């Protein structure tokens, strides 16, 4: 009797399995082969992709020259590391995108003005079936 009940539960689970949804994050190397540097437009790089909340951005850069700063909209627009900014300076960062706008700049205002800044609006990932 217990075996029949376990078999019934297993059959129900197998029928329901296709109804469950899963999400996956995607990892992007910021700037492609160039990495986080002023040699390319970071905004142009970002326009190649559709970003979702939970996706990861990998920043590889020379920590002696550059930094990665998560700032608010005002910091992004003015290329200013605001007091609430989160600053990274290790040369390799992995940052998960939050839902909504994500603003990232280099700590040097000149680099920021010249292309080292990103504005990414991460949306909800569409559900995927298993």
From TrEMBL:
PROSITE patterns, per the entry: PHYTOCYANIN
Keywords: Signal
Keyword Cytoplasm: no
Signal peptide per UniProt: 1-25
Presence of keyword Signal: yes
A molecular function GO annotation: electron transfer activity
Gene3D superfamilies hit by this protein: Cupredoxins - blue copper proteins
GO cellular component: plasma membrane
Phytocyanin domain ranges (all copies): 26-124
InterPro entries, per database record: Cupredoxin, Phytocyanin-like, Phytocyanin_dom
Pfam family, one: Cu_bind_like
Protein name, entry field: Phytocyanin domain-containing protein
Taxonomic lineage: Eukaryota, Viridiplantae, Streptophyta, Embryophyta, Tracheophyta
């Amino acid at each position: 009797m217990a075996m029949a009940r376990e078999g019934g539960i297993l059959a129900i689970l197998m029928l329901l399995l296709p109804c469950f949804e899963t999400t996956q994050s995607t990892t992007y190397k910021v700037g492609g082969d160039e990495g986080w540097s002023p040699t390319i437009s970071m905004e142009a790089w970002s326009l190649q992709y559709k970003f979702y909340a939970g996706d990861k951005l990998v920043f590889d850069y020379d920590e002696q020259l550059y930094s990665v700063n998560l700032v608010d909209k005002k910091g992004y627009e003015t290329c200013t590391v605001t007091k609430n900014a989160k600053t990274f300076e290790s040369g390799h960062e992995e940052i998960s995108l939050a839902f909504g706008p994500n603003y990232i700049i280099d700590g040097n205002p000149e680099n920021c003005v010249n292309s080292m800044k990103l504005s990414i609006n991460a949306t909800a990932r569409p559900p995927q079936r298993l």
